[in-house]
Amino acid sequence: MTENKKKAWEYDHAWITGAVPPEVSDDNEEDWMTYAKNGNRSDEQLFTDWYSEVPGSKAPCHLVVAAIQSMYNKGYEVSEAEKYIEEGLSALADRDGGRIQRVTARIYSCLNQAPKAEEAAYWKYPIYRTFADVKARTDFGVPAPYDVMSEDFEKKILAGWMGQLIGGCLGTQIEGYTTDNIRRRFGEVRDYLRRPETYNDDITYELAYLVGFEEKGYDITSQDVAMQWLDMISDGYSAEKIALENLRHGIMPPESGQQHNYFSDWIGAQMRTPIHGMLAPGNPELAARLAADDSVVSHSNNGMLGGIFNALLTSLSFTENDIRRVVEKAVRMIPHDSEYYTVVSFALDACRRFDTWEEAWSLCERQYQEYNWIHAYPNAAAEVIALWYGNMDFEETCHIIAMEGQDVDCTAAPILNALAIMIGLDAIDARWITPIGDTIYTMMRKMQKVTIKELCSRTCKAVRRAVEKEEF
C-alpha cells in the first residue's frame, strides 16, 4: 500500500472545480428511474429473504423466519418478532414492496433488541469467541508425524478434494428435505440423482482461503481471510451474506461473524473447513486454529466449533486408519463444556446404543427438531452417524448421509473428504468420480474455472512452502 499524501477534501475540491455542467436536455427521466430500480431491487431481495428455493434441490427457504428461529435457538426471547410473521407472509403473497420493507424492519428491530431468555439451555454453556477460548478448554494431543513431501500426501490430497466434490454433487440434489420425504420421492439414494455439477458454495470459501494461504502460510489471519472474501466472493447466504455486508462496512472479524449475525451458529463454517485439515495433516491443533480463525469471519461460538470439528476429522484422517476412531477423537477434542459437544456426543452415544443408523438418526431428528435444517446441530449429528455406520465403506456412507437429509451437500462433502483421504481414491467406484470430470466451475469473481489437478497441485505446493518456512 502506497502512502497517500492527498487529503480527502483535496480530492473533493478537485472534482467539483473540474466539473463542468453538460448541455441542457429535457430527457433526464432515466437518471431518476435509477433510484426507482434500486428500490425495486431491494424489494425483490426481501421477497427472496421471505421465500426462495435452493438452487439444485428446490427446497423451500424462509430466511427471515429462520432468523427468528435461530435467535430462539441462541437463547433469546423472540415472541415480539414472531408477531409479525403472518403479516410478512401476507405482504409476500401480495408482492407488496412497502409492506415487506416495514414488516422486515420491525422483525429485525425486535431481534436486535431481543432480551435473553434466562432459562434457555443456551446460557448454561460458555460462549466461545476465538481459538484461544477453545485451546484453554481442550486437549488436542501431540501431532502425529506425517511427511507432506511424500507422494502419499499428493494422493491423499487428490482423494480428499475428490471425496468432497462427490459429496457436494450428491447432496446438492437433495438438500433441505427430511429422511421420510427423500425416501418417499426417491426410495434409497445410492447414486447421483442427476448429472453432477460443481456450482455450489461448499468449495467457494475454501478456494478463497487457499489463495490467502498460498501467500501467508500458517501466519494467515482472520482479516487475511476476510480480504480474500471481499476480493473473490460477490455474495453469500445467511451468515456469510451478513458477514460480507459487515466487512464492506469495515466491521472486521471476529465482529463480522457476530454483529447482527442471526445465523452465527449455522452450518456455514462447518461446511468449509475440510481444507484446514488438509493444510495441517496429522496436526489437529493446527487444523483447529486455522479453522477457527476462518470460521469467525462469519460465525461464532457453536458455529465456530462446527468449523473446528470438520477440520479435526480431516486432519486426523491422514494418520489414522479407522474412521470410527477419528470420530471419537474429534468429538473428544471439542470442549466438553460447550453446547456443541452435547450434540456430537449425543449422536456418538446413539451410535453406540443402536444397531442401525436409522434408529440413531430418528433419535437425533427428534432431539434437534427445533433447529433449522441449515443449523450446525442436526447436521453435525448426521455426520457422526453416517461415518460411524458407514464404517469405512464409501458406498454405504454416501447412502446414509444422503438419506439423513438436512443440509446434505454441507454434510456429505466434509465427511467424504475425510473418508476418502483415509481409504484412498482406488477404493471409490469410478461411477462417483467420472461424471464430475476434471474441472470445477464456481460463481466467484476469480477462479471461476479450475481443474482438479491444478487445485491439488496448488494445495500441495502451498503446504510444502509453509512447512519449509516453519516447522509445525
Short account of what is shown:
This protein is an all-alpha fold. The protein is 60% helix and 2% strand.
Key terms:
60% helix; single chain; two-stranded antiparallel sheet; 472 residues; mainly alpha
Summarize the structure in words.
The longest helix is centred in the first third of the chain and has 22 residues, at 29-50. The strands form two sheets. Strands 1-2 form a two-stranded antiparallel ribbon. Strands 3-4 form a two-stranded antiparallel ribbon. The two termini are 31 Å apart. The mean pLDDT is 95. 49% of the residues are buried. With 472 residues, it is mainly α. The protein has 24 helices and four strands.
Order of helices and strands: HHEEHHHHHHHHHHHHHHHHHHHHHEEH
Placed side by side, the strands forming the largest sheet appear as 1-2
Number of helices: 24
Largest sheet: 2 strands, antiparallel
Shape: globular
Relative strand content: under 5%
Helix content estimate? 55-70%
Q: What is this structure's SSE topology?
A:
Blueprint: H1 8-18, H2 29-50, E1 52-53, E2 60-61, H3 63-73, H4 79-82, H5 85-94, H6 97-112, H7 131-135, H8 151-172, H9 179-186, H10 204-216, H11 222-232, H12 239-248, H13 268-271, H14 274-279, H15 284-295, H16 302-317, H17 323-333, H18 339-353, H19 357-367, H20 376-390, H21 394-404, H22 408-423, H23 430-433, E3 439-441, E4 449-451, H24 452-469
Antiparallel strand pairs: 1-2, 3-4
